Amino acid sequence: MKQTVKIQELPHIGSTRIAWLDWLRAIACLMVIMVHACECVYSNDYSFSFTDSTSLWSVALISGFMRPAVPLFLMASSFLLLPLKGDVTTFFRRRLTRVAIPFVVWLVLYATLPAAWGEWDWSESIRNLSTVWINFNPRGSHLWFLYMLIGIYLIAPIISPWLKNVSKRQEQFYIALWFLTTFSWHIHEYVGEVAGECWWNPYPTFYYISGTFGLVLLAHYIRKYIDWGVKKTLAVALPCIVTGYIFCVGWFYYQSGIAEEVRILELSWQPSSFAPAIMSFGAFLLIRLIKISSGAVYDIVRRISEMSYGMYLMHMMLLPAVFSFYSGTMPVYCVILSTALSTYIICFVLTMLISRLPFGKYIVG
Length: 365
What we know:
Elements: E1 7-10, E2 15-18, H1 19-42, H2 53-65, H3 69-78, H4 88-112, H5 122-131, H6 144-165, H7 168-181, H8 184-191, H9 213-225, H10 230-256, H11 262-265, H12 274-287, H13 295-326, H14 332-355, H15 361-364
Antiparallel strand pairs: 1-2
Helix pairs in contact: 1-2, 1-3, 1-13, 1-14, 2-10, 3-9, 3-12, 4-6, 4-13, 7-9, 10-12, 13-14
């Protein structure tokens, strides 16, 4: 039996809504927060340590399973994006209001607001403001995702005409090339620079079809060509998830005993590395099977989906404090789960309240 895309009419906004995309955004948002709750156990982005084996295994098993988080968020954002519909000016105007302005607001907040509760003094906030136009402050390191997303938006008008005309076989060819580049994270560690890469040329042969671009292309391909039934979806998706998960956990555990940098420890966890890529493909297909598009539960999921961007923006302002509240009161794995769920709920409530303010859309999207 073929899978059909469930589209729900939303009279109050005069448009259509794909219900499973709401589930996808809600799930991906929770997964991102779960990843960052795990990081509180062992890492500050630059160094890492584990107090005991329980902490190590808790992080490896939980965070390893959450690796599709960022790819799913991106694929959800781009699923209906390409090819572009309408003129480019309107496209960018909408992204300016919905994405760029809240992004800038939170760049400033992460650079300054922690001084209000004594995390640093106000003089440091002033220093942070002097560099915020260059890059994110370490306190808001999760905002890297927005820089990447804006980059996708900038290139969207260029690749959109190609996607309107490309054949299925041609798109498969580029997805296959992209998938080969997902191994480059590990190749670089063993053989160094490849394919013309050197200090005066950081853009090797496959640079322009590597990274998160492939996830956007994959989302477009799934929307256009993959319409499988439940059995085939499960037959493909589950092996992808299991294989990727085993590699993610295995690499992390192995490297925890020999790696000296977080970068090496988390090499297999990068969003555009091959294990998270195949996990994301499988997870995306599974979530498409969700048929629930009405009722009280879906109403909550839909609201979370609508608030997910604001929740993502603000969650790292709250999560460290929530983690500190639970830390030491229960086993590590319970601390991780409690921190993530509590932060998720608090951020949802706060985002919903802010969205009702006259200028709320400029803060939480």
